[in-house]
Amino acid sequence: MKHSTTQPTRRGRGPARRIGRTLALVLPVVLVLSGTLAVTRVNWSGNPSNSVLTASDASAAEVAGHARAPQDVLRDQLLTELQQKNPGVALTHLQEAVNGRPSLARHCASIARTLGRAAVRIYGPSRAQSYARPVCDTSFASGVLTAHS
User: Fold this and answer.
1) Disulfide check for 55: which of 30, 40, 103, 127 has CB 3.0–4.6 Å away?
2) What are phi and psi for residue 52, nearest 5 degrees?
3) Which residues in the chain land under pLDDT 70?
């Protein structure tokens, strides 16, 4: 049995070979870039909120060379929610944050009191009190009372 020693023609290798070489060069670059972008979109803060911490947000969160404490970030987010939505939404998210991250429990009462004081400034004492519920041992109501007194 004889084997053929004829070489394949150049015409059969041309376009396929060019496409293969292009993919071999471009595909790794695309994979590296998409992986880098995916890593920057992951919520590395451990905060159970729906917001996504991007790489640019991480540098903005640093104040004077150090990162802000998680309870300070949570308090500011909840104060914003209180202004944009209502105190009930902020209290619900406070309870969810404490349930999801028990290390925040020791800050729960002070955050709830802060929310109560802010609610009085925005909604007035009667309406602010209507949002009170037993989150963090009724500290929200305590904050409403101290702001009203």
Assistant:
1) 40
2) -105, 130
3) 1-13, 31-66
Residue 8, phi then psi, degrees to nearest 5? -65, 150
One DSSP character per residue, 23-42 reads HHHHHHHHHHHHHHHHHHTS
Q: 3 is written with which tokens? A: 């084997």
User: What are the φ and ψ backbone dihedral angles of 97, each rounded to 5 degrees?
Assistant: -65, -40
Q: Which strand (E) or helix (H) includes residue 108?
A: helix 105-123
* Bridge partners (DSSP) listed for residue 67: 62
Q: Are 91 and 140 in contact (CB under 8 A)?
A: yes
Q: Which pTM was predicted? A: 0.55
Neighbouring C-beta atoms of residue 131, cutoff 10 Å? 20
- Answer for the pair 73, 61: CB distance below 8 angstroms, yes or no: yes
Q: Is the C-alpha dihedral spanning 36, 40, 44, 47 positive or negative?
A: negative
